């Protein structure tokens, strides 16, 4: 089994071996302050349809988390832009997913700063 892949705005990167604190998507807001001192926090996405991790990431950033924030679990390329908008720095994906959704599919969503659906609707 191959190592997972880290996805960032500039493409695929080899797994760095870092062992973050991993938060479940149902972690309560009051528990988040206990983790602000960590350099790397990962938020688990147990299912592609479970968006609680996006809300949790936003809350972490709103209360002042400055470290690296990684999404892990069942995310797909279509969710990359949302992950970046709410405060994730990167997404960790299994090597098998990287084969099914190669780097170009993730890079296609790396323009997350240029695409603001709400502004376009209000436009």
How is this fold's topology laid out?
Layout: E1 5-8, E2 11-14, E3 21-23, H1 29-32, E4 40-45, H2 52-62, E5 68-73, H3 80-85, E6 90-93, H4 95-100, H5 103-108, H6 117-122
Parallel strand pairs: 3-4, 4-5, 5-6
Antiparallel strand pairs: 1-2, 1-6
Total strands: 6
Strand content: 15-25%
Shape: globular
**How many domain units?**
1
Mean pLDDT: 91
Question: Could you walk me through the main structural features you see in this protein, from its secondary elements to its overall organization?
Answer:
The chain is an alpha/beta fold and 123 residues long. It has one domain: Rossmann fold (3-Layer(aba) Sandwich). Helix content is 32%, strand content 22%. The protein has 6 helices and 6 strands. The protein has a 6-stranded mixed beta sheet. Strand 3, helix 1 (29-32) and strand 4 (40-45) form a beta-alpha-beta unit.
In short:
By secondary structure, the chain is of the alpha/beta class.
């Amino acid at each position: 089994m191959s190592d997972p892949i880290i996805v960032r705005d500039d493409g695929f990167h080899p797994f760095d071996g870092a062992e973050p604190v991993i938060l479940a998507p149902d972690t309560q807001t009051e528990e988040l302050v206990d983790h602000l001192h960590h350099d790397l926090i990962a938020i688990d996405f147990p299912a592609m349809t479970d968006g609680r991790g996006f809300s949790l990431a936003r809350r972490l950033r709103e209360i002042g988390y400055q470290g690296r924030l990684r999404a892990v679990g069942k995310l797909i390329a279509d969710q990359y832009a949302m992950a970046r908008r709410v405060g994730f720095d990167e997404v960790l994906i299994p090597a098998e997913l990287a084969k099914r959704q190669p780097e170009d599919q993730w890079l296609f969503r790396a323009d997350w700063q240029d695409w603001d659906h709400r502004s376009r609707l209000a436009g």
